[in-house]
Amino acid sequence: MDSFQPQWPPSSSFLETLQTTFTVITLTTLGIILLLLLQRRSSSRNGVEPYVQNLYVYPIKSCAEIDVPSAKVTPRGFQYDRVFQVVVPSVDCSDQDADAAIASDN
């Protein structure tokens, strides 16, 4: 009986086969994980379709929102959303973290 003598370094065709096999196994495993995650996500809804409960636009960036029944989607987002920003000349920008008065609902 002949004994097996490994070749070192391995041939390039062997390395290519090994790399292809590893790639196939990795992609298959990732695909299975993705399918399991998607099945878990869809079964957690219990047959209830998602819906939008409230829709808000913020005409002035970082200030109070306005509840709207619908909104037109533009290339920049919802129409009238964050169109304006309060700016103080001595400061780079203002938001409700910097000035709590501008965040009030009034």
List keywords for this structure.
106 residues; 4 strands; two-stranded antiparallel sheet; 1 helix; alpha+beta; 2 domains; two-stranded antiparallel ribbon
What is the subunit organization of this protein? single chain
The helix-and-strand class reads alpha+beta
Shape from CA axes? Answer: elongated
- Average pLDDT across residues? 79
Low-confidence stretches: none
User: What is the radius of gyration?
Assistant: 29 Å
Proportion of residues in helical segments: 25-40%
Instruction: Indicate the proportion of strand residues.
Output: 5-15%
Number of helices: 1
First CA to last CA: what distance?
Answer: 93 Å
**Biggest sheet: strand arrangement:** 1-2
H/E element order: HEEEE
Kindly give the count of domains: 2
Number of strands: 4
Structure notes:
By secondary structure, the protein is of the alpha+beta class. It folds into 2 domains: 10-44; 56-106, no CATH class. It contains 1 helix and 4 strands. The protein has one helix at residues 12-43; strands at residues 56-57, 66-67, 73-74, 77-78. A two-stranded antiparallel ribbon has the order 1-2. The longest helix has 32 residues, at 12-43. It starts with 11 loop residues before the first helix and ends in a 28-residue tail after the last strand.
